Structure formats: structure tokens, C-alpha cells
Amino acid sequence: MTDPLLRIEDLHTQFGTDSGTVHAVDGVSLTVERGEIVGIVGESGSGKSVTARSILRVEDPGRIAAGTIALDGVDLTDATDSTLRRIRGDSVSMVFQDPAETLNPVFSVGEQVAEAVRIHDTDGSQRLLDYLNVPLFRNRSAWTDAHERAVELMDQLDIPNPEHRSSGYPHEFSGGIRQRAVLAIALASDPDLLVADEPTTALDTTTQAEILDRLRTLRDERELGILLISHDIGVIAQTCDRVIVMYGGKVMESGPVTDVLTTPEHPYTRALLACSTRNVDADERVTALEGRPPDPLGGHDGCPFAERCDHVTPACHNGDVPTIECGENHRVVCSEAPLSDDSAKIERKTETTMSAAETQPSEPHTEVNREKVAPNDEGTR
Ligand SMILES: Nc1ncnc2c1ncn2[C@@H]1O[C@H](COP(=O)(O)OP(=O)(O)OP(=O)(O)O)[C@@H](O)[C@H]1O
After folding, report:
1. What are the start-end ranges of the E strands in 100-216?
2. Could you tell me the distance, in angstroms and rounded to a whole number, from the CA of residue 45 to the centre of ligand 1?
């Protein structure tokens, strides 16, 4: 069996603060295959971004206290800074919500995409020249090649009139075009894995849908593996092949999107779906999930959702919560699953979400296998 493109196993990422240790990620396991889009969804503070930041240790990533992160079978957990830098410029790219974090206001968009192409194409001798501060693009044909490739990438990201736009500056473009330019920069290195943290959250719905659609095309054309982080279940439904539902730094449920969103088994997934703006009738008010997310200080024993859960039992407050296999690759981490109550209502509503997102829901599972699987194997295929 070949290694998945990305395998995260039992990851614990923590931050030391004056008030104590923040357990931001508390035993997360997941995989991403080539040519697959895996979504991580959950409320604010559930640990989605810290999971993503832990992969390449960027943007104040915290301390990996335990667990492993492997890319194509190679363990990155103890990788040196120079190895991580090489991987960042080569096999893995990251895109964040705000394009301003990536784009430099004083260079044209075309120059920035071309520079990303150049860095990727740089061979050892050019690296030495860089070290000696020999100016960029001393070679006219190298510049022309990089510029041509930049225009091609901008075109692939649906930037209209890319040749002309390449000389424009970031402030001259809409948020949607800026985010497309950031994606062009991310793809300049022809990465195997793209980690996208809320890449369309700041955009209007039409632009969001176009960019998500483009991600799916890139997945197919380039066999790109994508880890897509979003708090929006609609985005996940529209884009992903599999989903990991996170809460309190832990995986609550995982599986194929069509299964998890049409037959959610965890009370938290159900609550999230019930609150989803895409999941309410037009005349129904959007409801917020009652209660507050758990305090990540000091970590928690038992299920982090217990305080807010309608199905809570004394067992939920203590010890390991069992992982239940409830369908092919569909797992739920809950002592009370499968739930028998008002599932029909949730399923009806969820099907509406899925069809609105133009996805093809699979047949709901009729049988649930309560067989327990290894606690650290929540999100794996
Ligand atoms: N630098 C930091 N120092 C201390 N705690 C942090 C730090 N960064 C994140 N955290 C904490 O880690 C937990 C997980 O944060 P994370 O950003 O991963 O959540 P999230 O699910 O991505 O939510 P959001 O969408 O709001 O970013 C939160 O409780 C957060 O406050």
C-alpha cells in the first residue's frame, strides 16, 4: 500500500501562555491523498488553522508536543528549518484568507507570480548568485520565460486579460482577482499539496463559487491534494471529497462528504448543520449553537462537546471516547453514536444543502457498524 500524500497522526500542538498551556490541537489524525480535497470544518477556535499551520510550521504554529506529520511517507515532525523551507517552496503551498498577507503592494502582480516561478526554477548556481546578491533576472530570457509562465498561471486561475493585468498592482484589483493571483503564486512551484485556510471567506458568493470550482479543476488536472479549511459547511459540501469535523482541538467525525453531511452521526456535526445558514428555510432565523466552545487551557478529559450536548451521559465526561465505524471510511468519536432521535429532520435539511451545492448525495447508510476502531485513527481513510 502506498503512503498517502499527507498523513497526520495523533497530532498535539500546544501554546505556552501566561495562563497555562493551550491545547489547540489535541490528538488529530487525518490523511490527504493525491487528487483529493479534504475539508476541515468546525466553529471558531476548534483548532483548524493550528492543524494547518503545524504542517509547515508557519505563522506562529505553536509547539508540536506529540504526533507525526508525514509528506509522501517522509516524516516532517523533526525536519530542520532548511528542509521545511525547501518543502514550502516546492511540494507544499499555503493560501490564507487575506491576499494582502501574501501580496507585496509595491510590486506588480505579474512580477510577484514570475518571482515565484523563478524561485521554483532556480538551480544551485542561481542560489549561489542569490547568496552573493546578484540581481534578479540578470538573464533576459529567464525573465521572459518566468513572465510567460506567470501569465499562463494567471490565465489558469481565470484572471481576465492576464497579459495586461500582469502589470497591475494589488490595490488596483478586486479581492477576488487578488486571491486568484495568490493562488497563481501558490501554484507556481507546481506543488503536490495545497493547504488553503478560509481562502474564499472574504469574497462574495459568486466569486467564492468560481474559485472553489477552479480548485476542483486543479485537483483533477494536476492530481493536486488539497486541505481546505472552512467554518462554512456549504463551502465544504460544494468542494470537498472528504471532511473532518473538528471541535475543541479534536476530530469529532470524519468521512466522505456525502455520508457525513447526509447522515451525520455526531451531535456536534448535527448541531453545526442545523446552524448552517444554507441549511435553514428562507423564513427561518439562523440559530447559533447554544453554549460556548470549551476552554483549551489545560486540555480536557472525555468529549469536549459534552457540556453542550443534548445526548450527554456521565461516561462522556471521563476517559477516552470510543471511535465508531459507521460506514465505509465514516467514523464518529462519540459514546452515544449512532443517534436514533430526530435524524430524519436533519437528513432532509442536509440533502437540501447538498443539492444546493450541486453535489451528488450517496444513499444514506442503513446499517451502522458499532465496531470500535483505534482511538488515533479518527480521520484516516
Ligand atoms: N499563538 C497562540 N497562542 C495561544 N493560543 C493560540 C494561538 N494561536 C491559536 N491559539 C488557540 O488555539 C485554539 C485553536 O485556534 P485555531 O486558530 O486553530 O482555531 P480555528 O478553528 O482555526 O478558528 P478560527 O477560524 O477562528 O481561526 C484557539 O483556542 C486559539 O485561541
Report:
1. 193-197
2. 5
Q: Is 313 exposed, middle or buried (0-12, 13-18, 19+ CB in 10 A)?
A: exposed
Q: Which residue carries 523563478 as its cell?
A: 118
Which ipTM score applies to this complex?
A: 0.98
Same domain? For 80 and 220 the reply is yes
Q: Is 245 in the pocket of ligand 1 (CB under 6 A)?
A: no
**Residue 323: closest CA among 264, 275, 251:** 251
Last residue of a domain, one of 187, 206, 229: 187
Q: Is residue 1 part of a domain?
A: no
221 in the same domain as 80: yes
| Same structural domain, 120 and 238 | no
For ligand 1, mutation pick of 28, 48, 228, 251 (most atoms within 8 Å of CB): 48
pLDDT tens string 91-106: 999 998 888 778 999 9
Residue nearest to ligand 1 atom 30, measured at CA: 45
Looking from the CA of residue 198, the nearest atom of ligand 1 is 25
Which residue, of 172, 187, 202, is where some domain finishes? 187
Q: Whose CA is nearest to atom 10 of ligand 1?
A: 24
Of 92-96, 118-122, 131-135, minimum mean pLDDT range: 131-135
Distance 222 CA to ligand 1 centre (A): 32
The conformation of residue 361, written as its DSSP 8-state character, comes to P
